Amino acid sequence: MQYLANPTRFVALANAVLPFVWAITLILFGIGLYGALFTAPADYQQGETVRIMFIHVPASWMALFVYVVMAVASAVAIVFRHPLADAAAKVAAPIGAVFCFLSLATG
């Protein structure tokens, strides 16, 4: 793991893996969205409006998770002065904001 503590090595590895991660993400996102919006049955009481829960709840959890990651990365950056932790905290902020917006817009 200490091999990847060097920012140059980490960025090189991340750039090599990124296209595969994007492809896997898009495929799994499509499968999950199809299953949630088309395969899952409607609720007997709320009808089709219950499907918003398939977007709202995961968006809320992801917003919380991203903000916790941002807090941990910020703490590591302050304590250990590691540049990758600072970069992770900076990158996590807009992602958390998007998930928070999705949660608020669908809730």
Please state the structural category.
mainly alpha
Q: Radius of gyration, Cα only, in angstroms?
A: 18 Å
Please give the number of β-strands: 0
| Quaternary structure | single chain
CA-CA gap between termini: 40 Å
Q: Provide the low-confidence segments as ranges.
A: none
**Count of runs of 4 or more consecutive helical residues:** 3
Give a quick set of tags describing it.
107 residues, mainly alpha
Write structural notes for this entry.
The chain has 107 residues and is mainly alpha-helical. Helix content is 79%, strand content 0%. It contains three helices and no strands. The chain starts with 6 loop residues before the first helix and ends with a helix.
Short description:
This protein is an all-alpha fold and 107 residues long. It is 79% helix and 0% strand. The protein has 3 helices and no strands.
